[in-house]
Amino acid sequence: MEKFVDEITRQATRHWTLAQPAVSAFIASVVRDFRDRDDVLQNVAVAVVESFHTYDSDSPFIPWAIGIARRQVGLYLRRRSRDPLVFDDDAVACLAIALHEEAQERSHALDFLQDCLGSLDGRAKKLIGLRYRDDMKPAAIATETDMTPNSVAKALQRLRDHLRGCIERKSLEASV
């Protein structure tokens, strides 16, 4: 039984790690005080772990976690109801929906980025790999590739522009 609990906790932690930036952004969009944000985020993390057994793995995790965050933010707002600048429940719901849509768009963009990276040729792939996988600066890449630092920087800028355009094209194609 102990191993089963550990695996559930491990899965909850893995999901939470990926969802935490989106949940944190949602909380920050509603809760102004940074100390209160940290408290609400911590309450959400605890609630996510405690209720993970109710999560349906066939549905996306981030909207589920944002649903928990909405309830925690609602509790926080009710405690702060005397503050005239507090959002009402409808405004919080609208923010949650908008954040979920933004998270989905970013997820699709990452999928498109993988496709676009796969279409790069040998030299372009090597430059991108050295810069972003190996975290090398243009001067170090120049030494590795017999290029000048300036030409590496320009090539990387052209590659970023190419990838951005590729992602935008794929996004347009997917929305049609």
Automatic annotation (TrEMBL):
<protein>
    <submittedName>
        <fullName>Sigma-70 family RNA polymerase sigma factor</fullName>
    </submittedName>
</protein>
<keyword id="KW-0804">Transcription</keyword>
<dbReference type="InterPro" id="IPR039425">
    <property type="entry name" value="RNA_pol_sigma-70-like"/>
</dbReference>
<dbReference type="InterPro" id="IPR014331">
    <property type="entry name" value="RNA_pol_sigma70_ECF_RHOBA"/>
</dbReference>
<dbReference type="InterPro" id="IPR036388">
    <property type="entry name" value="WH-like_DNA-bd_sf"/>
</dbReference>
<dbReference type="Pfam" id="PF04542">
    <property type="entry name" value="Sigma70_r2"/>
</dbReference>
<feature type="domain" description="RNA polymerase sigma-70 region 2">
    <location>
        <begin position="20"/>
        <end position="82"/>
    </location>
</feature>
<dbReference type="InterPro" id="IPR007627">
    <property type="entry name" value="RNA_pol_sigma70_r2"/>
</dbReference>
<keyword id="KW-0805">Transcription regulation</keyword>
<dbReference type="InterPro" id="IPR013249">
    <property type="entry name" value="RNA_pol_sigma70_r4_t2"/>
</dbReference>
<dbReference type="Pfam" id="PF08281">
    <property type="entry name" value="Sigma70_r4_2"/>
</dbReference>
<comment type="similarity">
    <text>Belongs to the sigma-70 factor family. ECF subfamily.</text>
</comment>
<dbReference type="InterPro" id="IPR014284">
    <property type="entry name" value="RNA_pol_sigma-70_dom"/>
</dbReference>
<dbReference type="InterPro" id="IPR013325">
    <property type="entry name" value="RNA_pol_sigma_r2"/>
</dbReference>
<feature type="domain" description="RNA polymerase sigma factor 70 region 4 type 2">
    <location>
        <begin position="113"/>
        <end position="163"/>
    </location>
</feature>
<dbReference type="InterPro" id="IPR013324">
    <property type="entry name" value="RNA_pol_sigma_r3/r4-like"/>
</dbReference>
<keyword id="KW-0731">Sigma factor</keyword>
